[in-house]
Amino acid sequence: MSEDYKITLSEKDMPDAWYNILPDLPTPLAPPLNPQTGSPVTPDDLKPIFPDELIMQEVSQEPWIEIPSEVKEIYKLWRPTPLHRARNLEKALGTPARIYYKNEGVSPPGSHKPNTAVAQAYYNKKAGVKRLATETGAGQWGSALSFACKFFDLKCTVYMVKVSYEQKPYRRILMHLWDGEVFPSPTNRTNAGRKILEANPDSKGSLGIAISEAVEDAATHEDTNYALGSVLNHVLLHQTVIGLETQKQLELVGEEPDCVIGCVGGGSNFGGMALPFVRDNIKNGKEIEIIGIEPKSCPTLTKGVYQYDFGDTAGMTPLLLMHTLGHTFEPPGIHAGGLRYHGDAPILCKLVHDGFIKARAYTQNPVFEAAVLFARTEGIIPAPETSHAIKGVIDEALKCKETGEEKCIVFCFSGHGHFDLAAYDDYLEGRLKDYEYPEEMIKAALNDLPKFPTGI
């Protein structure tokens, strides 16, 4: 077994195709539904906001979809990303477990998000689109799409959740640096935003609200399409470069994972890491434990109901069968802004519902405690979102310390925390609040679920 700290691949070893799990699912994924008719959404329903090639990827039954050469050339700016052995963390924990992390924080925007941002910008440029509108929570997706749009000469408009806009000014600056325009959501620019502000002038926003604004922007401008950074099938498809590279790197050092972990907000980084390993379980009879980690203040997978719901607050999107806390739910303003979404990727929700994936939730302070330990041992400052995965990894490694099991634990280091230092200051100075499951808020939001279809 290698003694290296980093396992690297050459550019020629990058995947040539993204992995599509849809044809490998034991039972089909439930289709998105038109909320007016209750019928499955057709490609024509999506044409006003998505290019044809992304719509086809959303429903494709091909297990492998070729990565365009133009996309691969831009990927080479940071891909393949390194797989690190967390030897110093292992030593600090005194665990017999072997811990590896796939470092997606080395991309120019600092996270996994450009893996799909570049692909989406490419397909929209091919379709003749001039501008992309999107939402962002902590700002990682907004900065990634702004970055990608510059390569394809597209304009980019970002609706950033207001609480994150105020907490994370440097991510806003990063978007501006790549020529994106950024607005704190809810805004007065859209009907959806104005409606929210009329009901609650002090609204700090949510991803659901920001999605409503971005979708409305795209739907009301002929030259503009919508780009989503998570949840949808084609987004998880593009992110599978993470897991596919990880599999090659583990093979190089003779490792097979016992446990794969990632943080979950909408599901893109976790899906990108996990889905190739889910395939191993389904197709090859492996028994890899796969765990998604979320915040207790927005416990979609652990406390949500599995039912059709809107992907946005205003009810403009198709209905998706997913674990949901209710599309009107506004979670507390935790620092992990990318994990504050009421729903989750339908693919991951189905895998959780069917028992292929487990879910776990934590509050902020234990998560930041884990992040500080990681930073002080491995030297890299993790984003608050990523820190949820690290907390899960540490717990699994400590279980191995108790049992003596020499497990191989692999996780997705989804992004660095260089623009999240205010959050670390809050933690170190004892100002960080632990938001538990806001039961009454979620109960009220669940009352607003669509009355049909009933889902599961």
UniProtKB/TrEMBL annotation:
Its EC number is 4.2.1.20. Its cofactor is pyridoxal 5'-phosphate. It is an enzyme of class 4 (lyase). Keywords: Amino-acid biosynthesis, Aromatic amino acid biosynthesis, Lyase, Pyridoxal phosphate, Tryptophan biosynthesis. GO terms for cellular component: cytoplasm. It catalyses: (1S,2R)-1-C-(indol-3-yl)glycerol 3-phosphate + L-serine = D-glyceraldehyde 3-phosphate + L-tryptophan + H2O. Pathway: Amino-acid biosynthesis; L-tryptophan biosynthesis; L-tryptophan from chorismate: step 5/5. InterPro entries: Trp_synth_b-like, Trp_synth_b_CS, Trp_synth_beta, Trp_synth_beta/beta-like, TrpB-like_PALP, TrpB-like_PALP_sf. The beta subunit is responsible for the synthesis of L-tryptophan from indole and L-serine. This is Tryptophan synthase beta chain. It comes from Dissulfuribacter thermophilus.
